[in-house]
Amino acid sequence: MLKAMKCPNCGREQVVIEMNVRGERLVLHSCSPCDLRWWEGHDGVVPLAGVLDLATAGR
Is the pTM of this model over 0.85? Predict the structure, then answer.
């Protein structure tokens, strides 16, 4: 699912992409104007390393 929201850093439109990775719902927030990006899971912000670990688990 793709939707637009305002960036908390610069107030401009950001892209928010929701996806399921190995059964866990993750949301990527991305703002091109100020280069701010972060992932969220059900417990809050997820570091990139955690997203990569989840995506590559079981390989």
Answer: no
